[in-house]
Predict the 3D structure of the following.
Amino acid sequence: MPEQLAFALEVTANGLMAGVLYALVALGFVLIYKASGIFNYAQGVMALFAALTLAGIIDGQVPFSHLINAVLGTDVHHFGWHVPAFLAILLTMVVMIALAYAVQRLVFRHLVGQEPIILFMATIGLAYFLEGVGDLMWGSDIKSMDVGLPQGINAWIDETTFEAFGYGFFIDNLDIVASIIAALLVIGLVMFAQYTKQGRAMRAVADDHQAALSVGVSLNFIWILVWSLAGFVALVAGIMWGTKSGVQFSLSLIALKALPVLMLGGFTSIPGAIVGGLIIGVGEKLFEFLIGAPFLGGATENWFAYMLALIFLVFRPQGLFGEKIIERV
Amino acid sequence: MLYRESGDFSSSYAEDSQTFPIKFDRYRYYFVMFIAIAVIPFLINDYWVNSLFLPFLIYAIAAIGLNILVGYCGQVSLGTGGFMAVGAYACYKLMTSFPDVSMLVHVLLSGLVTAAVGVLFGLPSLRIKGFYLAVATLAAQFFLVWLFNRVPWFYNYSASGQISAPERTFFGINITGANTQAWATYLFCLMFVIFSAYVARNLTRGSVGRKWMAIRDMDIAAEIIGVNPLRAKLTAFAISSFFIGISGALFFAIYLGAVEVGEVFGIQKSFLVLFMIIIGGLGSIFGSFAGAAFLVLLPVVLKIVGVDWLGWPTDIVAHLQLVIVGGLIIVFLIAEPHGLAQLWRVAKEKLRLWPFPH
């Protein structure tokens, strides 16, 4: 049945694209986890926050206008200008760096040396906090995001596959662009970590805090750097997902999509995040297509990734590429 | 002056090993019990019960359950919402299949069903640790919610996909359905709270609890000194899920009456209960109560202050609530990682020396 095969191929291609986006979110987790041992649950909310800020700045919204109006009885909404997308992205990046600084300075500096699980819970608190602040700043209505990324069906792939299979694949231009940007981002990050001074310092901190400190690496600076990088990755992810499905609360749930990717790939491995993302993206789409929708009533995408990761972990507890866990008493 | 242990001598083993060895604590405990059982039921009305007392009591049970797993045994779980859903649906199926059996039995049985499911999802904890386990429990959360949404047998093929509690009585008094009375539902839940707290308190200070704590503090070392990690972890999962199942059953049958699983038992619920035990205090039964009370009261107080006094729109207050809860979590973790329970302990220490602290 060639038609079914063509469907399956299309699903696989779409799964790969989705997987790249999962990997992008997972990458933010890996960066912070490697450098500071913090499992940053707030990564998804950071993406939401970045997307909200970007949409708000482009639109010329007054931050906290809703709150100001309620408290002071005024009626302000917009500054009345539109910021060009590129400038807005730069401004958002400044906000994310300020956020990274604040988070490091006000929260995690006071939690150095605490157990990892306490740090994890602090990031859950941070996620709630950021979500509330984001909503207060920019309002909770669904915003559309347009920074000039192409959208819509890719005509070339549609035609080519139509000639080859007699059935045109539906692949969104946005997904293709997103994959390319994600790939570039990953290459860039790897280069940064390998060949720059700061990147090496970052890896040194990831390897051993004490040793890094003793050769003169500033932990504070590196942690702010890492949080800023994670903010940058969150911004990119926020732009992609925001363009795809609008800037709204559900954007923060992509963090939940990234978690099984991390488990599968290992918390400490950048290639792991990518391979894991691809496996999960393809796996859940194919499972939904082959088994979920026909036999189980659909919507299996919510849990399939977790189950896959869970079963996988039972056999390999540190994930695909994770460092072997050695425990000593 | 009041809070003293001097002159409080134990003359038998039973006295020495009782739950509240200090006389003042004991009398305070009796006093609280007296207020809860004999005073509050006469004073409350529907509003108080539905907005404060029922959620507090039910969340307290869930928090005790989760505290056993996270606070005492050190296995972080984000699947609380899913396990509460198991309790709710088990209770629903039992209520509709066996209408003549007492609600007491139904609720306890739903606890047992949830315990079984909990053990099943606890099995990976033997291989997976720390964050990996926390994320793995999300599998339970998403899978269970999906299951109850998609398999019609669980909601008796009802058209809306919801489950709603039929009218059931306990000793001839309505406790579920539309015609309930405030004091009856309150007392029914209170009974389970007392039962849970009593069992949890005595388990955690006995050999089982010590094994859990050994596993929490360092599982390899615990294994070497002879704690069986399989049994310790799985009993923690079972007992924790048992309580969470009870709370889920009560949440559905007594408190809400009708439930749509994705909304009520979603991942937000897991985090809410987790926050309760963080704010209240990990590894403390009192902390479970304190955290539940705090997070049940907070939205009510914020709503009264924000909406009724200041006249702000409700959505701003809802967002502020997120900011405040998130901020409080962080503040608590920085200032007092052991939560309200630790503050209480410190206060007691101070009281003991007061008014001559030197």
